Amino acid sequence: MFKSYHKLFLSAAVVAAVATSAIAGDTGGSRTYANGKKVIDGGDTYPVKNGKTSSYFINEKAHKTKFSKGRVPTADEVAAWNIDVMPDGTGLPEGHGTVEEGDSLYEDKCAACHFDFGTGGSGYPALQKGNAYEGQKSLTNQRVDGNDDGPIRVFGTYWPRASTLWWYIKTGMPHPAPMSLTTNEVYALVAYIISINELKIDGEELDDDYDLNREKFLKLVMPNKDGFVPKIDGPNGVENTRKYFNDFKNYGNGTRCMKNCFDGKPVLARISGSGISDYQPPISEKKDLPAKKAGSEVPGKKTYEASCAVCHGTDAMGAPEVGNKKAWAAVLKKGIDKVYNNAIHGINGMPPKGGTSLPDDKIKEVINYMVGASK
Questions:
Q1: DSSP state of 318
Q2: Using one digit for the tens of pLDDT, what is the confidence trace for 305-323?
Q3: Is 218 helix (H, G, I), strand (E, B) or coil?
Q4: Which residues on neighbouring strands pair with residue 33, listed in sequence order?
Q5: For 223-340, where are the E strands, in sequence order?
Q6: CA 162 – CA 158 distance, rounded (Å)
Q7: Is the separation of the CB atoms in 329 and 323 below 8 Å?
Q8: pTM above the 0.90 mark?
Q9: Domains plus CATH for the chain?
Q10: Chain centre distance of CA 34
């Protein structure tokens, strides 16, 4: 849950927990306990009475079935699964990398999706929006007028811990080849992302020669480190969470209520001055589609941009880059039918249809577009 100086923003899970608790209060549900303690999320369970829980019938025979929880995992299995990095440094390996090295790696492996300097685009998130310390102040912004700027929620301004950045890059990036980066390459990329957010470590901004290592990384304090509740870090994290969510005063109005909750009729509150009215061009009320201009759109282009450009927009992914005549000439030596077949059924690192569910004819349109754009 994100903490604002003006209000608390509840996640869907929190809203669900509140609703469940309210229902239980109205229908006689019982508080859920685990090891003698209330559950973390404030949820409830319902006793089985006359074959029903609340208004719903259940299969009592299935309800009493005991399920096997499987075997205890081996130490190697646990080690292979337990690869995240905790805020206190647990799981963070030794290594190092410079900002300059990270810049070069970013251009090769990341810029195709996150664009130059992490500005984001085409559906991929931005990694920075200028100075993170200044941007962090925007988290208190309220859009009370149509032209007001909203909060800037990118890594530097919004994330409370940098440890997530390290293990997310290590385990999930680059998108087509996760787990392919070395530890030193991850340190270099993290150093570069910290630098473009203009964050400081021990009061020092990261220049091109800055060599980030484990010791230095653990000294990074994020601007929004206290921006979320409850406090989940540390040995008391579970108890803090349990205490927070089992106190209804921390969200909603602090009272379980399903009917007759207030007097009078509800009033819909609107923020004064909100909304945009001066659209340019003005909004049309026509329902028909605009007429297509002859030759205005090349078949397959939009599908390529939406589903294929992430790999074929650069040669960094090992796929033939659109516009590279030499690369596509080599591909076409096999014949266009072979190219169609490889695209539809997959080849080497490319999954069938590029991982999409497009029909064969659409895949062929994309191939024709890429070939035409590479002559």
A1: S
A2: 888 887 888 776 678 888 8
A3: coil
A4: 38
A5: none
A6: 10
A7: no
A8: no
A9: 1-73+236-264 (no CATH), 88-217 (1.10.760.10), 301-372 (1.10.760.10)
A10: 30
